[in-house]
């Protein structure tokens, strides 16, 4: 299923008679701006983990997430004799390795969403591109969500919630796609995000349960801090450029 967006993008490119430019248009090849690419790879490893980890703290502060942020009982329990520091270091390494493996599947989505769709939406304005691509990406998950994936307690609301998390994560993936002029950092970030979502459970009260439409990065409390950051970045960008939604260099290259 993860390769259907790439297949759709290829089909449309062939219909547009741009099949020969498909690799370049979607940012698969060639790799450009080596320094930006390396910076993007580093951010792809760090930002998704930060998105996941901040959510339990915000959710606990609001009173929705069942967090144990004083004793970290569950974290201490699973870390055993190794201790939390070494345990988290091991988890970080596993997340990197799993993220690299996941990227081989995530590239199927990213070629469609960030490789093909994102550069064509940016000229309408970055806010529109973030919202529109996020909603499309979120609803694309609907068949799985309705079967109980990610939101087993309320799959109906889960479809809407999935759009929310796709908007938040998609904003970063779209930015990293434009910045690096490559789809590969976005695929890596996508893979790391999928591998790190389970970190949320380490901050929960032992034996507690949660509704993922409200808690974690999958729920609305997890989008508050990223949403503020996105809004500030868009506002500063609009002020500096004088024109909200300025065209990305990726789109300009496509038009040339």
UniProtKB/TrEMBL annotation:
Membrane-spanning residues: 37-64, 85-107, 127-149, 156-176, 182-205, 217-239
Sorted UniProt keywords: Hydrolase, Membrane, Metalloprotease, Protease, Transmembrane, Transmembrane helix
A single MF term (Gene Ontology): metallopeptidase activity
A Pfam family this chain is assigned to: Rce1-like
Residue ranges constituting the CAAX prenyl protease 2/Lysostaphin resistance protein A-like domain according to the UniProt record: 95-195
Classification via PANTHER family: PROTEASE, PROTEASE-RELATED
Protein name per the record: CPBP family intramembrane metalloprotease
Record organism: Glutamicibacter halophytocola
Phylogenetic classification of the source organism: Bacteria, Bacillati, Actinomycetota, Actinomycetes, Micrococcales
């Amino acid at each position: 299923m993860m390769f259907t967006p790439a297949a759709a993008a290829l089909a449309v490119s062939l219909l547009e008679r741009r099949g020969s430019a498909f690799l370049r248009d979607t940012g698969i090849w060639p790799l450009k701006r080596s320094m930006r690419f390396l910076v993007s790879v580093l951010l792809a490893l760090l930002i998704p983990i930060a998105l996941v980890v901040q959510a339990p703290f915000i959710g606990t502060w609001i009173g929705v997430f069942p967090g144990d942020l004083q004793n970290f009982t569950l974290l201490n329990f699973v870390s055993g004799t190794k201790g939390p520091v070494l345990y988290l270091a091991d988890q970080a390494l596993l997340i990197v390795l799993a993220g690299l493996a996941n990227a081989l599947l995530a590239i199927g989505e990213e070629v469609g969403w960030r490789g093909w769709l994102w550069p064509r939406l940016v000229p309408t304005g970055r806010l529109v591109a973030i919202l529109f691509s996020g909603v499309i990406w979120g609803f694309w998950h609907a068949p799985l969500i309705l079967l109980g994936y990610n939101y087993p307690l309320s799959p109906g609301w889960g479809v809407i919630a999935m759009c929310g998390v796709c908007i938040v994560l998609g904003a970063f993936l779209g930015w990293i796609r434009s910045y690096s002029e490559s789809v590969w950092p976005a695929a890596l970030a996508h893979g790391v995000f999928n591998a790190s979502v389970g970190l949320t459970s380490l901050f929960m009260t032992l034996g507690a349960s949660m509704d993922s439409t409200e808690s974690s990065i999958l729920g609305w409390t997890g989008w508050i801090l990223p949403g503020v950051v996105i809004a500030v970045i868009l506002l500063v960008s609009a002020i500096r450029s004088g024109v909200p939604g300025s065209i990305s260099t990726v789109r300009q290259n496509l038009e040339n």
